[in-house]
Amino acid sequence: MKISVIGTGYVGLVTGTCFAEVGIDVTCVDIDENKINNLKKGIVPIFEPGLDKLIESNIAKDRLHFSTSIAESINECEVVFIAVGTPPDEDGSADLSHVLSVASEIAENINKYILVVTKSTVPVGTSNKVRQIIEEVLCKRKVNIPFDIASNPEFLKEGSAIEDFLKPDRIIVGVESPKAQEIMNSLYKPFLLNGHPVIFMDISSAEMTKYVANSMLATKISFMNDIANLCEIVGADINLVRKGIGSDSRIGNKFIYPGIGYGGSCFPKDVKALIKTAQNNNYQLRILQAVETVNEEQKSVLFNKLKKHFNNNIKDLKIAIWGLSFKPMTDDMREAPSLVVIEKLIKEGAKVIVYDPEAMREAKKILNDKILYANNAYESLQDADALMLLTEWYEFRFPDWNKVKQLMKQHIIFDGRNIYDRFALKESGFVYYGIGI
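User: That's the sequence. What structure does it adopt?
Assistant: Structure tokens below.
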């Protein structure tokens, strides 16, 4: 089977590469000529563990191809995936312009039956718009070419996307015809051999499932952050509370870790989009509105602790920051809490020096020369008045505290992920602040 994946962002690139890995002939398409030329050379524009090696391997096996032409890529394809971005508009709704533009271009170039699958995260009703666009273009062409529409939302976690795709918890597919279901069943057959379920449903339900899944996870995060703040006020330890409730099988121990808020390309965007969808249908998602509010406020919690410690005057203090990406194992800084913290520090006149194992390039694009950039974690600590841990990369988990103490001017730790032993640090002469403790 031959397929085409339109869009070589995070979703499109992982999707195309993983399909190639199980033996499918894949062409990934993007209008960015420089990106496509680099991909042909094995130069990957994003950091995702293992992705570069898979791309290199499947190019060598002639199963993975890259192109800037939709027309050329879909001629022999049975399935085309739309995997372009759907960034949020100012009102929180998803911007569908790229999706609909691709749908139009597909319609302008097909000459036989094709299954058009929406892989991008899109609001309920988008597939109907895609269908309408294709029908309108075919009508203008005065041709009657059959096609089907399907929805196949992704559930990839940045940092473990390859594993998530090749060994998924579930595969959600929304279809409207037996033929479309048969094709999607055939496409995912390599994954079914390992017992991974494909759950077929109507297209609207598939589109909704993606948003609801991310919104539920975001809700757990904001709920725990809200409880963490209350624990701190009443003298409880959120780490112990988390263990207590996490042992309840009805709750589980995932996504109940307190911190400085969620970020990334999915949770913030999808929560906003689902809230907007409800508003467009004259309904208020009150819980999700609170989730979003809690999350925005949580991004400032650690900064507020730091400012309070220094009696509201941090001008000219040197603040070291470990971790910039919104979570470990990715270079993604979209909606990252670190950006909120850094902007607040700069506004108050602090000198900021940062280090992240993978996100330094992205940080320089966003922050330019507003801050200083260290070559390694310890370099950032030289004469620092405080250390703020914002992303829990593995290399930050067990630092040499004696070395840390020697390098820092003042020995103050602000742990935004509760990964350090506060009692041990206090015994070693550090002042420690965490979340909810």
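The two ends are 55 Å apart (CA to CA).
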